[in-house]
């Protein structure tokens, strides 16, 4: 299948987990009605972004994967014949938690999960308090419509992660994400941060010759201190923007991706072919300074 229609669901969230799940299902239905074959939900869509504080009570938001949320979404995936990419807070075992994305195929089957590899610890993003780094490695999933690679939010800054995912055969790379602006910042800083975020992900598309789909949350959280900046987008295999969401409203959009462009781009801009893999051993060092 050379052309695939992907749905991007950019939405606000509340404190009510069931309300958020129900809302996401409505949005998936909207995307499917517009022709979407693969629908991507934003990072941790069943809750507010709780990692702004270190609070043990927030661990109660976690669930098993597969579990209640994937069970509900599998029914929807099968009914609508769509693939669903669902980012959830995973309780793996007592005291062991991950930031995880589950993939449900168009027949309702559970294909597996990817656990976020890179975990931030910045002001208002205290994820190391909650999440154990992923131990499944990088993953691709063979769905009905395309072979998809999944990375999550902080992973988006790392070309190594996108490269490995592309080398595993991903036709499309999806990034469920949650990132925003501190509302005390000036507009120039806001724009610089957003441009950096979008640019690094578009560069993954260019370097690897694959489309990138990034889905971010939107709206004010953290008692108004954080404005999640939305700005979800989709690119083609050359990094060209095919869709760009607003910074301040919910959107459910469907974008058609031409997967045949990957072969064309890799033939005309043969970055994968020309890699000097024999010279890359030093990249596994923390820093190249002799120690």
TrEMBL record:
The beginning of the lineage is: Bacteria, Pseudomonadati, Bacteroidota, Sphingobacteriia, Sphingobacteriales
Q: What is the protein's name according to its record?
A: Acyltransferase
Q: Does the keyword Acyltransferase apply?
A: yes
Q: Where is the CN hydrolase domain?
A: 4-259
Q: Name one GO molecular function term.
A: N-carbamoylputrescine amidase activity
Q: Which PANTHER family match?
A: BETA-UREIDOPROPIONASE, NITRILASE C965.09-RELATED
Q: Does the keyword Transferase apply?
A: yes
Q: Which InterPro entries match?
A: Aliph_Amidase/BUP, C-N_Hydrolase, C-N_Hydrolase_sf
Keywords of the record, alphabetical order, are: Acyltransferase, Hydrolase, Transferase
Q: From what organism does this protein derive?
A: Pedobacter planticolens
Stored Pfam families: CN_hydrolase
Q: GO annotations under biological process? A: putrescine biosynthetic process from arginine
